[in-house]
Design a protein that fits this description.
Blueprint lengths: L4 E9 L12 E8 L4 E9 L4 H11 L6 E4 L6 H9 L3 E6 L4 H12 L1 H5 L2 E9 L2 E10 L16 E11 L2 E11 L7
Helix pairs in contact: 1-2
């Protein structure tokens, strides 16, 4: 597994809402190695509200040494980051509104044009039928200023991805923010 990227994500099994033996729809947290097309581990829970502890249990059960764990904003938790580091792995965690101060600090840094110019940057553009998607990734290891730096196990860099979708002349513009225990490039 060393060198692999595992993504942790939870999904609700909608058909279980109609089964009498389940009070709530069944929710499964999976660790997937997408490069190999494998699900490496799963933890079933009743309801999405139990996903965070289920992901933390799954992290502690798996041999993750040398891997990079990617997780959505729900799992952007200090305890989850510590569990990943405790297994000898690195993390890339999506930062959203469940970590409002961290998100604001990263967004303020990235949205400052002068600071953004100092960040490592990479861009891509894809066209599929009538849809054009442009992505710009930004990364920096300059995080000494970050108030919450010491709260996150082995935090090494922050990043952002700006995604622009154009379909039939209509354009949307979204920003996504990240933290990582591994020093990354924008590429």
């Amino acid at each position: 597994m060393k060198g692999q990227t595992l993504s942790f994500d939870g999904k609700t099994i909608c058909s279980t809402s109609r089964m009498e033996r389940y009070e709530n729809p069944l929710h499964i947290v999976s660790a997937q190695v997408s490069a190999l097309g494998l699900t490496f581990g799963q933890e079933a829970v009743e309801g999405k509200s139990n996903e965070i502890p289920a992901a933390q249990r799954l992290i502690k059960m798996l041999r993750l040494s040398g891997c990079v764990v990617i997780a959505d904003a729900l799992n952007c938790q200090k305890e989850t980051a510590s569990a990943i580091i405790g297994q000898g792995a690195d993390y890339v965690l999506n930062v959203k509104d469940n970590q409002p101060n961290l998100k604001k600090d990263i967004a303020d840094y990235v949205q400052n044009e002068q600071l953004r110019k100092t960040m490592d940057m990479a861009t891509t553009c894809e066209k599929s039928r009538e849809r054009i998607e442009q992505r710009a990734a930004f990364v920096t290891s300059d995080i000494d200023w970050l108030d919450f730096n010491a709260d996150w196990a082995n935090l090494r860099c922050i990043g952002a991805v700006n995604t622009k979708f154009s379909v039939k002349g209509e354009t949307s513009n979204e920003w996504h923010y990240y933290i990582s225990s591994k020093s990354l490039t924008a590429e």
